[in-house]
Amino acid sequence: MTDVFRQNGASIARTPTQTCTEELEPIRWTMARELAKVARRDRQGFDCAPWVHKATTMPREEFKREVDHYLTGKDTEPWEILYFKAYKSQLPVIERALETAALMLGSDKSRGYCLEMICADFLAGVSLETGNTDALLPSLTRLVLGLPMPQRRQLLENVQVTL
Fold first, then answer.
1. Which of 147, 86, 91, 97 has the alpha carbon at shortest distance from 122?
2. φ, ψ dihedrals at 11, nearest 5°
């Protein structure tokens, strides 16, 4: 099956594969992979034009978040990979802290979230010592929001009793 296009009076025959390839040329393979996820889900109802436009105009991570939001209905937070050097002698302490945080927060939490809670706990302790309550409140809020709902309710009940 070929499509015939007229250009400057001459007929040019192109197969649908050639047409599709030319339209997708500006899209990098990582974005094409995300497009395939949407196409696979929508099947015959897949509307290519808006997704190709988004893929060509949006930065890669933003486009990936858009696809994830479309597929799951949930917004994902932007993320970044952190690299830093740790000595072998420091690894047991770091691993133990992350494992302990995972046990306290729930094993379904990511290591990044566990690290964030360890840092929030550290900042809360420093804030208490220095009297800097501006840093304490956001850390405590994030910590409370990370608790499972039954523990969150229990904490709020305990706080209500002491007030």
1. 97
2. -85, 135
